[in-house]
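Section 5: illustrative case.
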């Protein structure tokens, strides 16, 4: 039996979450859109199988309220600088103009590395 998978999407663009939900939820993945950094702190970062997708102009470092997510595997969209607060087990970066197949491939790679 495969571990449950959870995807948290901190996204300034509704489209990213909508596409990920349409593709991944039928396969049993929980997709949750997090609308603010403060809302992110209400999620459980240590749940196995969690991947964070950050499509925001702000970094995790700028938000101490989200520091519990510094070690969660993540995909960063649109920024090229590396986060400085801790190095996550895995991190993938995509340019702001990306193809969803590349995003899905990065997410899947993080889940495979975690298992």
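Designed sequence:
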């Amino acid at each position: 039996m495969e571990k449950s998978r959870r995807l948290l999407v901190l996204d300034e663009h509704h489209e990213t979450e909508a596409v990920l939900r349409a593709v991944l939820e039928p396969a049993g993945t929980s997709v949750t859109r997090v609308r603010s950094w403060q809302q992110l702190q209400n999620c459980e970062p240590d749940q196995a199988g969690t991947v964070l997708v950050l499509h925001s102009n702000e970094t995790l470092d700028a938000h101490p309220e989200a520091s519990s997510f510094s070690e969660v595997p993540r995909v960063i969209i649109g920024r090229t600088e590396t986060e400085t607060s801790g190095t996550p087990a895995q991190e993938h970066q995509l340019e702001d103009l990306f193809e969803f197949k590349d995003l899905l491939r990065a997410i899947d790679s993080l889940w495979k590395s975690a298992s």
